[in-house]
Design a protein that fits this description.
Blueprint lengths: L2 H13 L12 H11 L22 E2 L5 E9 L5 E6 L4 H7 L12 E4 L10 E4 L2 H6 L13 E4 L6 H22 L1
Parallel strand pairs: 2-6
Antiparallel strand pairs: 1-2, 2-3, 4-5, 4-6
Length: about 180
């Protein structure tokens, strides 16, 4: 294998860390290239999530303490959107706390939980009403969350803030128009 070709392979593999986790020991050009091409791993240990962390996160995994964890995606009218690493059996109250609470424009009656895979009944999306939870602490509308669920907190279709922003744009133009007509 030529030196240029070996360099190209090493560069490609170093830019693709998910493809191969390699040992680049100083064993000469051929030794390093064969270690890269064989896909040998230095270690399966990942400091963030423990030794059993899979490359593609689609299920439960454990941390260093043995806690069973999963990833949940949170989008919409919350203060911190993004992926959350949470324990199994997490509920919406914990998700809301980790997401920094909801914004004032949120529609708590139509929170959408989108599953990566349909459940055993073929359902892939659920609409959850969290209004009663916020009002009375009633958790009866909560559903069990699964790995890679995406929770979307939608915006209210009508809010006073939206109405005020529309009026603040329209009113000056109507005022100018009516005064120019006179």
């Amino acid at each position: 294998m030529s030196a240029l070709r070996t360099l190209a392979v090493i560069t490609f593999l170093l830019q693709s860390p998910l493809l191969f986790s390699c040992k680049a020991e100083a064993a000469g050009e051929q030794g390093a290239a064969s270690a890269l091409l064989s896909g040998s791993r230095q270690s399966d240990y990942k400091p963030l999530s423990g030794p059993n962390y899979p490359l593609v996160q689609d299920s439960y995994f454990t941390d260093d303490s043995g806690n069973i964890l999963m990833i949940i995606n949170v989008l919409g009218q919350v203060n911190k959107q993004g992926q959350l690493v949470v324990r199994e059996n997490v509920d919406f109250a914990t998700i809301l706390a980790l997401a920094g609470g909801v914004q004032s424009e949120v529609n708590l009656r139509k929170v959408l939980v989108a599953r990566q895979e349909p459940d055993k009944n073929g359902v892939q999306a659920y609409v959850v009403d969290l209004k009663e939870y916020y009002k009375d602490g009633d958790r009866s509308s909560f559903i069990a969350l699964k790995p890679n669920d995406t929770i979307i907190f939608p915006e209210r279709s009508f809010s006073f803030a939206k109405f005020a922003s529309i009026v603040s744009v329209v009113y000056p133009w109507t005022y100018i128009y009516t005064n120019l007509k006179k």
